[in-house]
């Protein structure tokens, strides 16, 4: 049984915590919120609208002390970039592996996060896109980018109105996969609609971001030529999809060292190799 600490009890963190209750493979042992939050001291079950669990919510200012008492094997962070880096430092110093699902890091913050894991010799999954479906979309886009190498590519992402990071971390990851598929470096650019039109064709992958209502998450990638187009799309219906991925990543990172992503957790490269081998065998 993996013992888990949930950090960040907002829109998504609460759903992830709820999905951990009553499971045989993972057990929630700590629930951590923002220092000064009115969630501090509440039973996490009450906060989640279920029966009491005996786990009291604590502020992240007491993370160090909490880790020593409750000894989780892994922590999952759904907070914000600044809070996450502070929390990740405390976790790493306590040799606790982590799943970083928080998004919106600057390049410098991202490098800092990696070095926290490497220098402290702990395991970390950095997962700006934690669902199985969106990782498969990213993988398919990498292949499509190779096969349709002279097609224009446009990424359209849609999220709820209060989502802070624009574009989404997932959209940036998709753009990176497409660049990788085409063997292009440094091609990811965040553009306005007008820039996207004027710069089209110059190794630019435009990302269009929409923020409206309660949309959980949509990523569409369009490959278009003068003759036809192909669209690959992923849509999250419920935040439980994030919980599924986060729990899988938490179980994966226990006992490992180093920095991983969701493609490692989901073993996507191996799946592609198996597919390619099957194809080869069928022609033999
Ligand atoms: N990887 C993925 O696939 C994926 C999926 C969904 C979301 N996310 C990311 O996860 C993050 C959270 O998303 P969300 O939608 O749940 O946002 P949210 O509702 O704003 O939740 C963030 C939570 O973090 C809490 N917090 C702030 N500072 C903290 C600290 N120092 N220690 C502990 N908790 C702290 C906030 O508390 P207060 O409300 O009290 O300030 C809030 O409850 C975002 O970066 C989002 O982009 C990633």
Tell me what you see in this structure.
Pfam families: DapB_C, DapB_N. The chain has helices at residues 11-20, 44-48, 63-70, 81-93, 107-119, 132-147, 169-182, 193-198, 240-253, 262-266, 268-283, and strands at residues 2-7, 26-33, 57-59, 74-77, 97-100, 123-126, 152-159, 207-211, 217-224, 229-236, 258-260. Helix 1 packs across helix 9 and helix 4 packs parallel to helix 5. The protein has 284 residues and is an alpha/beta fold. The protein has two domains: 2-130 and 240-269, NAD(P)-binding Rossmann-like Domain (Rossmann fold, 3-Layer(aba) Sandwich); 140-236, Dihydrodipicolinate Reductase, domain 2. The protein starts with a strand and ends with a helix. The strands form two sheets. A seven-stranded parallel beta sheet has the order 3-2-1-4-5-6-11, with helices on both faces. A four-stranded mixed beta sheet has the order 8-7-9-10, covered by helices on one side. Residues 7-13, 32-34, 37, 60, 78-80, 83, 87, 101-104, 127-130, 165, 242 line the site of NADP nicotinamide-adenine-dinucleotide phosphate.
Output the keywords.
single chain, 284 residues, alpha/beta, Rossmann fold, Dihydrodipicolinate Reductase, domain 2, four-stranded mixed beta sheet, 21% strand, globular, binds NADP nicotinamide-adenine-dinucleotide phosphate, diaminopimelate biosynthesis
């Amino acid at each position: 049984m993996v013992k888990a600490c949930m950090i960040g009890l907002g829109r998504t963190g609460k759903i992830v915590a709820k999905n951990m209750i009553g499971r045989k493979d993972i057990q929630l042992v700590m629930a951590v919120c923002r220092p000064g939050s009115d969630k501090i001291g509440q039973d996490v079950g009450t906060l989640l609208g279920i029966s009491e669990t005996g786990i009291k919510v604590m502020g992240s200012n007491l993370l160090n002390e909490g880790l020593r008492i409750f000894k989780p094997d892994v922590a999952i962070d759904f907070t914000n970039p600044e809070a996450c880096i502070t929390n990740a430092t405390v976790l790493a110093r306590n040799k606790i592996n982590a799943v970083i699902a928080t998004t919106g890091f600057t390049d410098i913050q991202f490098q800092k996060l990696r070095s926290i894991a490497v220098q402290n010799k702990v395991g970390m999954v950095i997962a700006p896109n934690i669902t199985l479906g969106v990782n498969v979309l990213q993988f398919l886009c990498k292949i499509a980018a190779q096969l349709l190498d002279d097609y224009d590519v446009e990424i359209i992402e849609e999220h709820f109105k209060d989502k802070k990071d624009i574009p989404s971390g997932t959209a940036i990851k998709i753009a990176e996969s497409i660049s990788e598929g085409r063997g292009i470096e440094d091609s990811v650019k965040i553009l306005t609609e007008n820039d996207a039109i004027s710069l089209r064709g110059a190794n630019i992958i435009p990302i269009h971001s929409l923020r409206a209502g309660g949309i959980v998450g949509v990523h569409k990638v369009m490959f278009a030529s003068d003759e036809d187009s192909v669209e690959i799309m992923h849509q999250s219906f419920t935040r439980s999809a994030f919980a599924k991925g986060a729990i899988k990543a938490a179980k994966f990172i226990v006992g490992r060292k180093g920095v991983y992503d969701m493609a490692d957790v989901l073993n996507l490269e191996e799946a592609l190799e198996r597919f390619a081998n099957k194809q080869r065998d069928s022609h033999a």
